[in-house]
Amino acid sequence: MSFAKKLLHFRKGGLAGALITTLVGLLLYGGFGLGLIYRSYDYPFGPRRPIKVEDVVLVYMDDESHKELNQPFDAPWDRSLHARLLERLTREGCRAVVFDIVFADPGRNPAADERLARAIRDNGKVVLAADAVPVIGLEKISYDTAKRLIYPFEPFKENAAALGLDEVMPDSDLISRRHFHGAWEDELPSLSWATARLLKADVTRDATQRFQPRWINYYGPPGSFPAAIPRVSFYAALDTNRVPSGFFSNKVAFVGAGLLTVFSGQRKDEYPTPYSRWGGKGSRFMSGLELQATMFLNLLRGDWLTRASSPGLVERSGIVLLGLLVGFGLVHLRPSRAAPAAMAGMLLIAVIAYQIFLRAHFWFPWLILVVQIFTALLWSVLFNSIQLYVQNKLYEQSLALYLSPKLVKKFASNKELLRPGAKKETLTILFSDIANFTSISEGMDSDELARYMNSYFQTAVAQCIHHTDGTIVKYIGDAIFAFWNAPDPQSDHALRACEAALRFRDQPPQYMNGEQLVTRIGLHTGVANVGNFGSTARVDYTALGENINLASRMEGLNKYLGTDILITGQTQEGAGNTITTRFAGHFQLKGFEKAVEVYELLGFRDEVESTKPWCETFENALREFQRRNFDAAEAGFRCTLEMRPSDGPTKFYLRQIDELRVHPPAPDWAGEIELKEK
Q: Is the previous residue joined to 508 through a cis bond, with omega within 30 degrees of 0?
């Protein structure tokens, strides 16, 4: 495949990767990846160290307090205990007291109610919880008609500094991530907002800020030790021996049950937190009391988490931009490079998200970007794997044009034949040609000619050349150019080439246009330059050099000698004594300075014993010919014709004798025959 085609192919793959990666990101952002969005918020909390805060203390009505204060588990507590706690908090100068308990009804002890009401009034900065309960039958209407408010008992309500809803807004996985400060302007605010407004937190000075989107910045895992937010048991808070005087000074106290609400025995909402995904120390759940305190601290400290002001537009734009970038870019890298690049990209996204979370209190759905990069990596691996598979198949098909199936398997796993350049190798080269092909094929229909030639080449390649693991270089009209000993080294390459030539000769006769096809073959063994030759647009695996030309001349010499297979002395020597040959003489071929020693390949030694008499007679006559004893040579050649009437070399030399008698050779003539034509 040319560079231009590869570039175009990779552009198409890159565009497809960009489209797929972008669509995956948008689909995940559009709702299919809600879990990834949630986790993008949750995960940065895990590695962050807990943030110690001193502005708030949690006073828990826990199991130990139940036991120590002898309070029932199935009824409201004695409200004089709440009054005692509030009186201490007032004495110690507590900044505010928040009761995450709905004192909705009068208590069983009016004196205790009066004491608590008086303590609320004396403190002056008490925030009481109100509750919003669903109205049965209206749950599926709007928020305001589906719930009704339950306010504190009137004496408490009148003396409280503020009221706040004890609701939170958990997501579908029950983790509370967003601040909830009320659904509409006239509604009660949340406990956290009411407390922050009471203490004149900066964010509460502008009423419109109440409904701005905020995300909870958790300070540490619930139930961990040491706790991010200080906590004490209710019973201990009543006893200065357990909690020293001054402990509550200048703090905001949040009072409520751990995982219980209203009164013991009624379950309070418990919420998993981002830390629940990490496990480790502490509880997996956080009480509503600590959740309200956390949101209050966010408002007081101004360190809540934020997201893009127009998250839909901004985040979608980021998803599209990253999808286009990585989807298009990773395709152009090999899997061995794409994988580290993708891993680095995913790590970079995670690091950036974490650092922004730490330093700017900002979060975004970064895990979608990570999944996008992973998707781009998968596409890159898939695309390049398919590319590699197709290229390997094309490469194997290309090899099959040259090599036998066995060698195709051997070289398919490496790209040696694709490497540019060439090297010198000793080859045995074969050239074949169909005798009188032009006259035989004249007038034939093109399709019919192609059918005959395809059948001819199929036999030549499968049964002869590839059968002996030869390399087909090219077809030149009706001719075949092949060699042995490259690309796979073969110590017996000369013998293999001879075997291929003999198999070619011994194939069943093939006919074209009513005439039998006769194939002439020339073999030569010598050094040639083997490798990829061509232009920048196309290269061919071939061999170049004078020895290639000599093999071609050997094939052409068959026409003069009337033979089927001629080989040079180098090939005859390389093949060894396994074959039987007849020495055909020395020939001065056109384009070559030195005479070439030529042999006719007759067959394998154990198959041609019957040729011995006439071969010996011919060779004796040839020796006389080379000694200029033309009369003795003629007698010997005619004797050969009597034993083998159709012998082409014998007839050739009889014609040479007639010509030499007319034009005697030079004094230094050594018996070589000069051919002035190819």
A: no
Give 135's DSSP letter.
P
8 A C-beta contact, residue 557 and residue 522: yes
Q: Residue 143: which H helix or E strand, with range?
A: helix 143-146
Percentage of the residues of the chain whose pLDDT score is greater than 70: 90
pLDDT in tens, 567-612: 999 999 999 999 999 999 999 998 888 999 999 999 998 877 788 8
Tell which residue, 375, 396, 377, has the closest CA to residue 385: 377
Q: Give the E-state strand segments of 605-640 in sequence order.
A: none
Rounded CA gap, 401 and 466, in Å?
A: 10
- The answer to whether residues 194 and 188 touch, using CB atoms and an 8 Å cutoff, is yes
Paired tokens of 214: 């905020």
- In DSSP terms, 362 is beta-bridged to 306
**pTM to 2 decimals?**
0.70
Say what percent of the chain tops pLDDT 90. 67
Query: Do residues 17 and 332 lie in contact, with contact meaning Cβ atoms separated by under 8 Å?
Result: no
d(CA 14, CA 9) in angstroms, rounded, equals 9
3-state secondary structure of 449: helix
pLDDT number for residue 321:
96
Q: Which residues contact 4 (CB under 8 A, 6 or more apart)?
A: none
pLDDT over threshold 70, residue 323: yes
Q: What is the DSSP string of 519-532?
A: EEEEEEEEEEEEEE
Six token digits for residue 437: 């092909």
b/e map of 233-271 (b: 16 or more CB within 10 Å)? bbbbbbeeeebeeebbeebbbbbbbbbbbbbbeeebbbb
DSSP label at 305? B
State the average pLDDT over residues 655-664.
93
How many other C-beta atoms can be found within 10 angstroms of the C-beta atom of residue 14? 21
Q: E strands within 67-219?
A: 96-99, 126-134, 147-150, 162-165
Q: What is the pLDDT of residues 119-165, one digit of tens each?
A: 999 999 999 999 888 766 554 444 445 677 889 999 999 999 999 99
Side-chain half-sphere CA neighbours of 295 within 13 A? 31
| CA 267 – CA 259 distance, rounded (Å) | 7
> Exposed, middle or buried by CB within 10 Å (0-12, 13-18, 19+), for 640?
buried
Which residues partner with 601 through β-bridges?
581
User: How many CB atoms neighbour CB 277 within 10 A?
Assistant: 16
List the beta bridge partners of residue 476. 479
Q: Which residues contact 254 (CB under 8 A, 6 or more apart)?
A: 56, 57, 58, 59, 98, 100, 289, 290, 292, 293, 296
**Cα gap 76→19, rounded to integer Å:** 62
- Nearby residues of 360 by Cβ (< 8 Å), 6 or more positions away: none
What interhelical angle do 288-301 and 191-198 show, nearest 10? 40
Query: Could you tell me whether strands 270-272 and 231-233 are parallel, antiparallel, or unpaired per DSSP bridges?
Result: unpaired
> Which amino acid is it at 394?
L
Q: What are phi and psi of 324, to 5 degrees?
A: -65, -40
Higher pLDDT, 428 or 388: 428
Token readout for 499 is: 């075997």
Q: What is the DSSP string of 29-76?
A: IIIITHHHHHHHHHGGGTTSPPPP--SEEEEEE-HHHHHHTT--SSSP
pLDDT at site 140: 44
Give the pLDDT confidence of 73-88 residue by residue, as tens digits: 778 899 999 999 999 9
The DSSP H or E segment spanning 402 is helix 366-402
> CA nearest 26: which of 264, 313, 228?
313
- Bridging pattern class, strands 285-287 and 596-604: unpaired
| Alpha-carbon torsion (578, 581, 585, 586), positive or negative | negative
Give the pair of three-digit tokens for residue 309: 């002001």
Mean pLDDT value of segment 361-390:
92
